[in-house]
Amino acid sequence: MSGNLHAEVVVIGAGPGGYAAAFRSADLGKQVILIEKDSALGGVCLNRGCIPSKALLHLAKVIGDAKSLEKSGVTFGDPTLDLDAIRSWKDSVVSKLSKGITKLAQARKVEVIQGTAAFDSATQLRVENNGSTQVVTFDNCIIATGSIAAGIPGIPTDHPRIFNSTGALMLPAIPERLLVIGGGYIGLEM
């Protein structure tokens, strides 16, 4: 990255709040820069939360629906699960939706910069990405950095049998038993 950039509106975070703010600002005629630390737009919900868990819930519902048809005289064999194929399908759903957000940004001429933003002043920030720095000045800034998984005091996060919802979506096998601590929607869907 080289040279300084300027935008009327800078939005930090490309989750549902961030990209909606960026798109609305662009629709109102503003020059917009959208900054996101992840390589894919969409935030936790799209990339590691609601959408992946709902994709998996859909598969579970299809299996349940097939089993319930037995009452109607239609019988299917027991399902076999190919976790790698399921994960690949889930990832393709997420990728398609994230690419859709990218296309919407391009259509609105919203410039997307990947990296982590840090403020230098009330009208300037720098974006760090892989050792390079981009300076961005702005008239207005919207901070929509979203959320991260909450830790629980006294429970280690580096234990191989303790993981957050992101880790649960990447398990190499379906556990026979799973204890979910917390009542957020992603945890409930697990």
Automatic annotation (TrEMBL):
Cofactor(s) named in the record: FAD
Ribonucleoprotein listed as a keyword? no
Please report the stretch or stretches of sequence annotated as the FAD/NAD(P)-binding domain: 8-190
Q: Which GO terms describe its molecular function?
A: dihydrolipoyl dehydrogenase (NADH) activity; flavin adenine dinucleotide binding
- Keywords, ordered alphabetically: Disulfide bond, FAD, Flavoprotein, Oxidoreductase, Redox-active center
Alphabetical list of Gene3D superfamilies matching this protein: FAD/NAD(P)-binding domain
Q: Name one GO biological process term.
A: 2-oxoglutarate metabolic process
Q: Which PANTHER family match?
A: DIHYDROLIPOYL DEHYDROGENASE, DISULFIDE OXIDOREDUCTASE
Q: Hey, which family's this protein in?
A: Belongs to the class-I pyridine nucleotide-disulfide oxidoreductase family.
Quote the protein name from its UniProt record: FAD/NAD(P)-binding domain-containing protein
Starting at the broadest rank, the lineage of the source organism is:
unclassified sequences, metagenomes, ecological metagenomes
